[in-house]
Write a structure and sequence with these properties.
This protein is an all-alpha fold and about 375 residues long. The protein contains 14 helices and two strands. Strand 1 (about 280-285) and strand 2 form a beta hairpin.
């Protein structure tokens, strides 16, 4: 049975690694990898393996969030009831226990998994750039992330992870320059998405990585430089989409106001998971008519769909998850590399959470990346690097 458990553990790790590599590149490869990871995990359970899931509080709150989402669907009005959204949510949340178990079984996998995230994002950014040039697209997206906004969220998180790991690999002859190339690719692709909200996340995540590895004043200097660079760009390019914030800013503020009204209608369990696009929130003025498919904010979107209870459970999980990553960094065993991996996971997670102020960064590929990162980071507080 031990040999069978070892085999399935390898299947789980291979599948999870494939998910991380393929997330921004291929929908099919991502699905296959997730299936393999689940098969490996279930196979280990059948072979008598006891899951190494770490903190019970995080898993309890995550299970509570899924249960509340299910209740929101069960009590939703007919036109808002979308039970298929539960499958999508479960396939996102399951990455957290899968990653924790795989990393705690063999802590050295954390380095591999973060490397796969960086490599996958680099390939996706290059492919997105090539596609944008060939097709003449105005805004860059990624092969499996067609919307430029979540594409920018993903790139911002990858940039923060690259900077976090890059401090450790700075003097490495091969890995250091490769990470530097990847980070430069992310910056170029991120700007080509022309998405403003994720830039905030990218700056927050990168500043966190700098603060964790250098004196905090350098992180503040980075934020100040980003603000100055944006101001100079705005002065030199007054017609750029990055500068013309008035219309999109008005739409977001209006959408937030309308979302709060919808929350008041069903405050406890919301209108049902995945129902936001059917709530009839449509922005209109003399120039545009734009249906709003999400609330442009993680917490408002969660409250509208799963109620204050669901939003509270999600928020509590994020607090516990980030807390566990910070604790793991402080207790890191395995030297500077183990700490660097934890910092990379923390910085990338903060980038996605900060992006959530202006978009729904816990959904789709950025959401899957977030739950995986929190697990990879939290797994570094115990065990020994092998």
């Amino acid at each position: 049975m031990r040999r069978a458990a070892g085999f399935f553990d390898g299947v789980q790790a291979f599948g999870f690694g494939a998910v991380l590599l393929a997330l921004p590149i291929s929908e099919a490869a991502k699905s296959i990898g997730l299936g393999l990871a689940v098969v490996g995990f279930v196979g280990k359970l059948l072979a008598g393996h006891r899951p190494k899931l770490g903190s019970r509080s995080a898993h309890a709150v995550l299970a509570l969030y899924l249960a509340l989402a299910a209740l929101s669907v069960a009590f939703a009005d007919g036109q808002f009831r979308r039970p298929e959204e539960l499958v999508t949510l479960a396939s996102t949340l399951v990455l957290f226990p899968l990653a924790l178990d795989a990393c705690r079984a063999r802590p050295s996998r954390r380095v591999l998994f973060v490397g796969l995230i960086i490599a996958g994002a680099t390939v996706a950014a290059l492919l997105g750039y090539a596609q944008a040039m060939i097709e003449g697209r105005l805004r860059l997206n990624l092969p499996s992330v067609e919307n430029p906004i979540p594409a920018a969220e993903y790139l911002g998180a990858a940039l923060a992870a690259g900077v976090g790991l890059g401090f450790f690999e700075l003097r490495a002859a091969i890995v250091g320059p490769l990470i530097g190339f990847s980070c430069g690719t992310y910056v170029l692709a991120l700007l080509m998405t022309k998405s403003r909200g994720p830039l905030v996340g990218a700056v927050v995540g990168t500043a966190a990585a700098v603060a964790a590895n250098m004196r905090r004043r350098y992180a503040l200097l980075l934020v100040a430089l980003a603000i100055v660079a944006l101001a100079c760009f705005a002065r030199l390019n007054p017609e750029s989409r990055f500068v013309g914030y008035r219309v999109t800013g008005d739409i977001r503020v209006w959408t937030w106001s309308q979302t709060i009204d919808r929350i008041r209608e069903r405050p406890l369990l919301g209108h049902g998971l995945g129902s936001f696009s059917r709530l009839g929130i449509v922005y209109r003025d003399e120039a545009i008519v734009e249906p709003q498919v999400n609330a442009h904010n993680v917490w408002l979107n969660a409250a509208a769909e799963t109620g204050i209870l669901g939003c509270g459970a999600l928020s509590l999980f994020l607090v516990i998850g980030i807390r566990d990553v910070v604790r793991a960094i402080r207790r890191a065993r395995g030297g500077r590399l183990a700490r660097a991996v934890g910092v990379a996971a923390l910085a990338a997670s903060l980038a996605l959470v900060a992006s959530g102020l202006f978009s729904v960064s816990t959904d789709a590929e950025p959401g899957m990346l977030l739950f995986a990162l929190l697990a990879i980071g939290a797994a570094g507080g115990s065990g020994r690097q092998t």
